[in-house]
């Protein structure tokens, strides 16, 4: 594997979906434009989910219409079903993501269905996305622990990740949704997945509740992963994962990867500006 790492920015979605008070669309747009200006190659800009479930993302279409599209950036969006996919296509998303869970409890809490039902629904979404010329990314949440079911076995992660690959996802983002995984648990999980899932098809999505996300990135690098999700300013969490905090901060990750001699193509100074703006959006009255 090479020494280039893709930083997949999820702050405008994973970060802002969790803000208690609404963030105006204009501020979301400004944040996304700051991130593209900082050279982030992929930005998860919005989420076309039910506004009953996540009101923070109700303005997804407005946000997608307002951003200044940088030609080198892929703007991606979460799509839980065909309706979300239609809206993402109408909003000119470059890529979409479906999101499943390795645990039944979180699947039920987050998307109101079993894992099996979610995979059946995602097959339709993936087929329709491909027919529209869009790549599909897959998330697997709760890779070591579920807020409702407790410990999660690697086999459960393998089954869901494998199913998502089979339905056409080009990459699987492995989510430590609670942000409490220890580096040895991540290393053990990745060792266990290695025979069935190639490292180049996997990404790390580490929330940072216990302050171990950067170390989890490092063990994932050792296992060959070269794509990591991160949230500018460390924003976020999931509204359906009580107690979870934001993803590893993009600026901390970019700095650490640079120290390790790994290329991201990100402009650290401009990312710091975006991070300052992101932090100003947090818990704003
Ligand atoms: P449901 O209640 O089972 O489905 O929700 P429904 O079909 O009965 O729909 C309920 C209402 O939502 C209806 O409206 C639908 O029309 C509407 P009503 O008739 O009641 O007025 N609706 C929609 N509206 C807009 N866009 C849509 C859409 N679909 C239905 N696409 C559903 C099922 C999946 C829709 C719901 O559970 C949902 O939207 N869940 C999303 C939850 C979410 O976004 N969670 C956060 C993202 S996941 C995450 O953060 C984890 C991740 O970061 C990885 C990690 O950290 O592990 C990715
Ligand atoms: Mg997340």
Write the layout of secondary structure elements.
Elements: E1 6-9, H1 11-15, H2 25-37, E2 42-47, H3 60-66, E3 74-78, H4 82-90, E4 95-101, H5 104-111, H6 115-131, E5 135-141, E6 145-146, E7 150-151, H7 154-166, E8 171-176, H8 183-193, E9 202-206, H9 213-222, E10 227-230, H10 250-259, H11 268-281
Parallel strand pairs: 1-2, 1-10, 2-3, 3-4, 4-5, 5-8, 8-9, 9-10
Antiparallel strand pairs: 6-7
This protein binds 3-hydroxy-3-methylglutaryl-coenzyme A and magnesium ion.
Secondary-structure element order, N to C: EHHEHEHEHHEEEHEHEHEHH
The total of beta strands comes to: 10
CATH class wording: Alpha Beta
- Helix content percent band: 40-55%
Which strand-content bin applies to the residues?
15-25%
Mean pLDDT, to the nearest integer, reads 96
CATH homolog superfamily: Aldolase class I
CATH fold name, please?
TIM Barrel
Largest sheet: 8 strands, parallel, barrel
Determine the structural class based on helices, strands and strand pairing. Answer: alpha/beta
Major sheet strand order: 1-2-3-4-5-8-9-10
Catalogue the ligands: 3-hydroxy-3-methylglutaryl-coenzyme A, magnesium ion
Measured between the Cα atoms of the first and last residue, the distance is 46 Å
The coarse silhouette is: globular
Q: Please give the CATH architecture.
A: Alpha-Beta Barrel
Low-pLDDT stretches = none
Number of domains: 1
Helix count from the secondary structure assignment: 11
Q: Whole-number radius of gyration?
A: 17 Å
């Amino acid at each position: 594997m090479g020494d280039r790492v893709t930083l997949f920015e999820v702050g405008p979605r994973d970060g802002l979906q969790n803000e208690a008070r609404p963030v105006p669309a204009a501020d979301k747009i400004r944040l996304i434009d700051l991130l593209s200006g900082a050279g982030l190659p992929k930005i998860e800009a919005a989420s076309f989910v039910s506004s009953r479930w996540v009101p923070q993302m109700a303005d997804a279409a407005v946000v997608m219409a307002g951003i200044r599209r940088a030609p080198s950036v892929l703007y991606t969006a979460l799509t839980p079903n065909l309706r979300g996919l239609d809206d993402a296509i109408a909003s000119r998303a470059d890529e979409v993501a479906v999101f499943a869970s390795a645990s039944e409890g979180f699947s039920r809490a987050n998307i109101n269905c079993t894992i099996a039902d979610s995979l059946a629904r995602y097959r339709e979404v993936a087929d329709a996305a491909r027919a529209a010329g869009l790549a599909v990314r897959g998330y697997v949440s709760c890779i070591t622990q579920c807020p409702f079911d407790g410990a999660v076995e690697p086999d459960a992660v393998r089954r869901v990740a494998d199913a998502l690959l089979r339905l056409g996802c080009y990459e699987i983002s492995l989510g430590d949704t609670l942000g409490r995984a220890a580096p040895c648990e991540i290393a053990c999980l990745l060792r266990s997945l290695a025979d069935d899932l190639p490292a180049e098809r996997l990404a790390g999505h580490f929330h940072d509740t216990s302050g171990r996300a950067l170390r989890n990135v490092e063990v994932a690098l050792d296992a060959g992963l070269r794509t990591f999700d991160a949230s500018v300013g460390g924003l976020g969490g999931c509204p359906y994962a009580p107690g979870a905090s934001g993803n590893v901060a993009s600026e901390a990750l970019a700095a650490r990867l640079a120290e390790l001699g790994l290329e991201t193509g990100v402009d650290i100074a401009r990312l710091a500006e975006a991070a300052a703006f992101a932090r100003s959006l947090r818990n704003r009255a």
